[in-house]
């Protein structure tokens, strides 16, 4: 019997009934590869199983609304990769592994929209560099995930996970609560088991916050480790794509494929970059022994229940051999205004470049033309004010003194006078802090209700950060973040893996 799956306007013929498909909800890369080697199932079976879950959990039933597009060629691609395996060709650890990617990352076979009606139906001329790497590695691009519109850079207040084009993404732990953003769809889809791996992007918090709210692992790499070419931008000094997965090991596997030098992204090129093709080599369950970790206490004071959970996590770290040193501040200067100014300038500049790269497929000649269309469409401001889009339109010269001074201050006070200073003064291997609060109730009128976050120091510095589930409050996940200096991904992955193995804090959502 064949199951006919309806996805938007697509009809995909699946090879078996749902009862006969593999249970893929919590399967990791290693388990799937072992099943392939044993002949227990094929990549087509696994892909069909995820497509069935997408139809059941995302499009009907709970209606997570975490996906924007489903790849109509996914089953065909899976079958091709099965044939390669049968012929003895296995491309690597991602051969036949289904991956969902955020809908601000270019794919030549599906539209890339950033949740905006102005990009609806626009199919880029080519794949983003990281998508090319994924396809070459044998990954199956299963589809594109919904996101906060323009990666949450559009209004003075907004609802994370909402876009005018895609609607509101929901949290699989409680459908009335927010998935956080901007990589909301990637977070919800990973938690709900709609793919083996998902990918998000982050400027400040957009990987780690939805990972926190959806009870998964999220890693934002050092800016320059992973190419940004072919990704709708906010900030070329802060943006990076990164893994969003159910385990640290899967994040390490995925990072090894994503990381690569791209001549089209100058931040990925240089002798100072420390890059590895296999990050699983650094995973060590005993990695916490003898390590000194700085507990940043500032975020913990914003919520007493998160504070109590963080203290429990710190105790677990100490039991595993780490020494905890409390630190009150990381950046002594208030650089929030400078950081926003940098984003406004860089968003305008980056959008001009992105629209130009679309060639004759671009809906507008440049960013200012797009903003004029926004101003003239009452629907654009019917829910949220679009203040950031308008403010960015006035910032169009990244050679201006205002921009250069703001960028210099942000980098100085987040790097040498921020994270690097704290690490040196306290002789720390990394800094830890709660990633965020439990998910808040989604409010389409008043917008988000952030209580706490810890992503700004690393985001402004362009340094890496990883979040791992550390427990639950009333059934809602909360994560613990580890961050450090540039190119410290091996250390952070090792520490996060050791914490994950010691605590096993992740709980599957009860969908």
Summarize the structure.
This is Amidase. With 511 residues, the protein is an alpha/beta fold.
The DSSP helix count reads: 14
Low-confidence stretches: 1-18
> Can you identify the CATH class?
Alpha Beta
The fraction of residues in strands falls at 15-25%
Helix content: 25-40%
- Classified in CATH, the superfamily is Amidase signature (AS) domain
First-residue to last-residue Cα separation: 26 Å
Write the CATH architecture name. Alpha-Beta Complex
Report the count of strand segments: 15
The fold-level CATH name is: Amidase signature (AS) enzymes
* Computed Rg: 21 Å
GO molecular function, one term: amidase activity
Enzyme class: hydrolase
Protein name: Amidase
EC number: 3.5.1.4
Question: What does it look like?
Answer:
β14 and β15 form a beta hairpin. This protein has a single domain, classed as Alpha-Beta Complex (Amidase signature (AS) enzymes), CATH 3.90.1300. With 511 residues, it is α/β, with parallel strands linked by helices. 34% of the residues lie in helices and 15% in strands. It contains 14 helices and 15 strands. The N terminus is likely disordered. The strands form 3 sheets. The chain has an 11-stranded mixed β-sheet with strand order 3-5-4-8-10-9-14-15-13-11-12. A two-stranded antiparallel ribbon has the order 1-2. It comes from Wenzhouxiangella sediminis. This is Amidase.
Q: Which short descriptors sum up this protein?
A:
single chain, alpha/beta, Amidase signature (AS) enzymes, 11-stranded mixed β-sheet, two-stranded antiparallel ribbon, 34% helix, globular, disordered N terminus, AS_sf, EC 3.5.1.4, Amidase_dom, amidase activity
């Amino acid at each position: 019997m064949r199951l006919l799956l309806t996805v938007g306007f697509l009809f995909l013929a699946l090879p078996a009934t749902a009862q006969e498909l593999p249970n893929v909800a919590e399967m990791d890369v290693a388990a799937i590869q072992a099943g392939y080697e044993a002949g227990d199932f094929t990549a087509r079976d696994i892909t069909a199983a995820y497509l069935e879950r997408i139809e059941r959990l995302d499009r009907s039933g709970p209606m997570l609304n975490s996906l924007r597009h489903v790849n109509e060629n996914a089953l065909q691609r899976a079958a091709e990769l099965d044939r390669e395996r049968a012929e003895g060709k296995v491309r690597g650890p991602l051969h036949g592994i289904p991956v969902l990617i955020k809908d601000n990352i270019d794919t030549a076979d599906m539209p890339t929209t950033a949740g905006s009606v102005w990009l609806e139906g626009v199919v880029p001329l080519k794949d983003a560099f990281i998508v090319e790497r994924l396809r070459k590695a044998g990954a199956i691009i299963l589809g594109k995930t919904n996101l906060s519109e323009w990666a949450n850079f559009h209004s003075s207040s907004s609802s994370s996970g909402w876009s005018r084009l895609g609607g509101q993404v929901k949290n699989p732990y409680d459908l009335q609560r927010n998935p956080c953003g901007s990589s909301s769809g990637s977070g919800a889809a990973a938690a709900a088991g709609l793919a083996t791996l998902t990918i998000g992007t982050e400027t400040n918090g957009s990987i780690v916050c939805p990972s926190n709210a959806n009870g998964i692992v999220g890693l934002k790499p050092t800016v320059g480790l992973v190419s940004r070419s072919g990704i709708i931008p906010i900030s070329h000094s802060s943006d990076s794509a990164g893994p969003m997965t159910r385990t640290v090991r899967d994040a390490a596997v995925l990072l090894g494929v994503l990381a690569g030098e791209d001549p089209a992204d100058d931040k990925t090129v240089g002798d100072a970059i420390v890059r590895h093709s296999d990050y699983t080599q650094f995973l060590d369950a005993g990695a916490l022994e003898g390590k000194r970790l700085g507990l940043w206490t500032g975020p913990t004071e914003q919520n007493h229940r998160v504070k109590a959970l963080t203290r429990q996590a710190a105790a677990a770290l100490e039991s595993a051999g780490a020494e905890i040193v409390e630190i009150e501040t990381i950046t002594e200067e208030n650089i929030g205004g400078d950081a926003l100014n940098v984003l406004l300038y860089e968003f305008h500049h980056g959008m001009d470049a992105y629209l130009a790269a679309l060639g004759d497929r671009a809906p507008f000649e440049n960013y200012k033309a797009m903003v004029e269309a926004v101003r003239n469409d009452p629907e654009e401001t019917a829910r949220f004010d679009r203040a950031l889009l308008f403010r960015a339109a006035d910032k169009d010269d990244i050679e201006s003194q205002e921009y250069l001074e703001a960028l210099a201050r942000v980098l100085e006070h987040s790097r040498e006078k921020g994270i690097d200073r704290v690490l040196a003064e306290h002789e720390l291997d990394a800094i830890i802090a709660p990633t965020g609060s439990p998910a808040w109730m989604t409010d389409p009128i008043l917008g988000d209700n952030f209580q706490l976050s810890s992503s700004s120091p690393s985001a402004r510095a362009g340094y890496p950060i990883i979040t791992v589930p550390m427990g639950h409050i009333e059934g809602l996940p909360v994560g613990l973040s580890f961050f450090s200096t540039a190119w410290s991904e091996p250390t952070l992955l090792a520490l996060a893996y050791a914490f994950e193995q010691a605590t096993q804090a992740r709980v599957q959502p009860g969908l």
